[in-house]
Design brief:
Radius of gyration of chain A: 27 Å
CATH architecture of the domain at 288-401 in chain A: Roll
Shape of chain B: globular
Strand content of chain B: under 5%
Largest interface: A-B, 31 and 24 residues
Distance between the termini of chain A: 22 Å
Helix content of chain B: over 70%
CATH class of the largest domain in chain B: Mainly Alpha
Number of helices of chain B: 13
CATH class of the domain at 288-401 in chain A: Alpha Beta
Oligomer: heterodimer
Radius of gyration of chain B: 23 Å
CATH superfamily of the largest domain in chain B: MetI-like
Strand content of chain A: 15-25%
Helix content of chain A: 25-40%
Structural class of chain A: alpha/beta
Number of strands of chain A: 14
Chain lengths: ~400, ~300
């Protein structure tokens, strides 16, 4: 992997959850030993009437990442996210934010924690129908008793950021679903909390709007660098926006990892079944398949280029000079030219085949057309035009096939 | 051979025992009202003073001024000229048919009863919505209040406080307060969970949630409860007149005993007119202020 990969392992841990259990029922504490002994959800339900929500959850969220928790309905993901701000208290376990155990907070401290540290976006928006859009956005500040003028100014600004300038005086019922969720997002951003909890935030929206919102979230995140915990049941969505993904099944974490790891190395049958139907071409970006190019040709003579290709047993080579990636030269062609002019520079229009390059962060799907026009590996260049790697055609075929 | 008559006849208590129970309870209550009746009555003195003052105000003011004030309130609440015209017509008809003073008396007692019912009912409803235990305790009490024949609870009230306005007000409130309590409780319990959760997630205190989210969103339901309370209070006017509450109820009572059909009809219609005015005005007010909720409430 290159340095372009989001090196989340280097980032500082912001939230740490350890040994978290959630059992729903009247005597949850007394059922806990049974759950710990490994009895299944169904067994516990049949024997005691208690529902096991979460079982031995251990995870950590790094500062500045989008951490996606993915699972099907009933997997406990919505229960899970409500533990982060203690809308639900665990039966047992620790939740630490910046090293502070939030289970120890007093009621007053908890309120302050919710006001300043975390904000939340809800699946069905959770807007207040009796307040205007602007008042909804300003709600977080209003309950902190921030001066009215100040909070409305701030709300207006966030409303503009999410693309709803001018809608401030409307009531939520007058807005479409997508617009309402933008209000929800603006409301969450307005308190300037560092951590953003998003509970299936885009699940209630239709596919086109959903994808638009995902783009907007990624764009905002690039600017704001919040720590986002995102719940979804949609693997495509998880792969698209997640820096890391946790897969939850029946209240147990199946796998936590980067999207590529989940996709290419599923930890168990469940995850494998899950990722089977994913459109990999869309979910993976070119960077994940990119390989280093051993031998890059520079601005050199035909003779030395042939020599270099022979030495590395290459049929063709990528050419890159001080201006960056230039194109591809083939040995056959070089040998034809060599008969006439051995000393000619290979960086010339007659020799170079202008194979288009792709960028490391574009999706594999969008790179496929570029790969079809020729028989060479697909060159990958960074923004400045520098050649960073290539993707062999066989690799693309293999990933798309399996 | 043992006595098997209990098979064919319900085994009831001996006559003597029943009389003893009645005597003991009656005696105890009479003793209680003799000892504490005056004290309890004096507790209601401020209310009585207010009732008398309000009734005098309505009767002593010139009729055109009273009508003007009523119309201003109606327009302020409903913003509807049509409704105002209807109200004006009814009030004029009432006045021309000689029922102005009685109508004002009824209006004053109904207004006071409604305000007191709201004052008692909404906090009780809030309490019920916050605690399942409170709900379990209050619900059967409300059932009793609504189904117990009014005459039955008139007896102890009259024994304790005598005949007059205050016992009337108490009887009316007992009969009329349950809807506002029930619907306040229901309205708050029906508030969208996610909206409430959102408020909590942003760090709202219990008070901020109650006044900022729960009560405003429950308001359409609470208004329906208030409306029902007003209607039931008006229905109680005739019964209350039996214990000396003056107003439209007394002529009705008189016409029952003397078979004055027209007198009864006119006064009955005046009660209906008041009921319709209260109903339409409160309904239009509720509708007007909650228009923007659209279809979003409680979804």
């Amino acid at each position: 992997m290159t340095s372009l990969n989001k090196a989340s392992t280097d980032l500082e841990t912001l939230i740490e959850i350890s040994g978290l259990y959630q059992v729903f029922g009247n005597k949850a504490k007394s059922v806990l030993p049974m759950v710990k002994a490994g009895k299944s959800k169904d067994e516990v339900l049949a024997e005691t009437g208690h529902t096991v929500g979460l079982r031995d959850i251990n995870l950590d969220v790094k500062r500045g990442e989008i951490f996606v928790i993915m699972g099907l309905s009933g997997s406990g993901k919505s229960t899970m996210i409500r533990h982060f701000n203690r809308l639900i208290d665990p039966t047992e376990g620790q939740i630490k934010v910046e090293g502070e155990d939030i289970m120890q907070l007093s009621d007053e401290e908890l309120i302050q924690f919710r006001r300043h540290k975390m904000s939340m976006v809800f699946q069905h928006f959770g807007l207040m129908p009796h307040r205007t859009v602007l008042d909804n956005v300003a709600y977080g500040l209003a309950i902190q008793n921030v001066d009215k003028k100040e909070r409305l100014a701030s709300a207006n600004q966030w409303l503009e950021t999410v693309g709803l300038a001018g809608y401030g005086d409307q009531y939520p019922a007058q807005l479409s679903g997508g617009q309402q969720q933008r209000v929800g997002l603006a409301r969450a951003l307005c308190t300037n909390a560092e951590i953003l909890l998003m509970d299936e935030a885009f699940s209630a929206l239709d596919p086109l709007i959903r994808s638009e919102m995902q783009d907007q979230l990624i764009e905002l995140q690039a600017k704001l660098k919040k720590t986002i915990i995102f719940i979804t049941h949609d693997l495509d969505e998880a792969l698209r926006i997640g820096d890391r993904i946790a897969i939850l099944k029946d209240g147990i974490l199946s796998q936590v990892g980067k999207p590529v790891d989940i996709l290419l190395h599923p930890a168990d049958d469940y995850v494998e079944a899950f990722v089977k139907d994913v459109n990999r071409a869309r979910a993976l970006n070119t960077q994940t398949l990119m390989q280093d190019i051993g031998n890059i040709l520079g601005s050199q003579s035909v003779e030395s280029a042939i020599h270099s290709l022979n030495e590395n047993q290459q049929e063709y080579g990528f050419v890159s000079n001080q201006d960056g990636y230039q194109g591809v030269v083939t040995r056959v062609q070089l040998e034809q030219v060599a008969a006439n002019d051995n000393a000619m520079d290979i960086c010339c229009d007659e020799l170079l085949i202008k194979v288009p390059s792709v960028s490391p962060d574009q999706s594999l799907q969008s790179a496929i057309p570029e790969a079809l026009g020729h028989n060479f590996a697909l060159p990958v260049t960074c923004e400045e035009g520098k050649l960073v790697g290539s993707i062999p055609r066989s690799e693309i075929a293999q990933v798309l096939e399996s | 051979m043992s006595d098997t008559s209990w098979l064919s006849k319900f085994p009831q208590l001996e006559r003597g025992d029943l009389i003893a129970i009645r005597k003991t309870l009656d005696g105890a209550y009479r003793e209680f009202s003799r000892n504490y009746g005056d004290t309890i009555e004096s507790l209601f003195d401020p209310l009585l003073t207010f009732l008398i003052w309000f009734e005098k105000l309505l009767i002593a003011s010139p009729w055109w001024l009273t009508i003007g004030v009523i119309l201003a309130i109606v327009y302020g609440a409903s913003r509807s000229w049509k409704l105002c015209t209807g109200v004006l017509a009814s009030l004029l008809a009432i006045g021309i048919l000689g029922m102005w003073d009685d109508t004002m008396r009824t209006l004053s007692i109904i207004t006071v009863c409604t305000l007191l019912s709201i004052g008692i009912g909404i906090p009780t409803g809030i309490l019920m919505s916050r605690s399942n235990r409170a709900q379990a305790i209050v619900t059967p009490i409300l059932d009793v209040m609504q189904t117990m024949p009014a005459f039955v609870y008139l007896i102890p009230v009259v024994m304790l406080l005598g005949i007059g306005k205050i016992p009337g007000v108490i009887a009316v409130i007992i009969y009329a307060v349950p809807p506002v309590i029930r619907l306040t409780n229901l309205g708050i319990r029906l508030v969208n969970k996610e909206t409430l959760e959102a408020a909590t997630a942003f760090g709202a205190t219990a008070k901020q949630r109650l006044f900022g989210i729960q009560l405003p969103l429950a308001m359409p339901t609470i208004m329906a409860g208030i409306n029902q309370t007003i209607m039931m209070a008006l229905a109680m006017v005739v019964v209350a007149s039996m214990i000396g509450v003056k107003g439209l109820g007394q002529p009705v009572l008189k016409s029952i005993t003397n078979q004055y059909f027209t007198l009864g009809l006119f006064n009955g219609l005046a009660i209906v007119a008041l009921a319709i005015i209260f109903d339409r005005v409160s309904q239009t007010y509720a509708k007007r202020t909650q228009k923007h909720l659209g279809g979003m409430n409680n979804d």
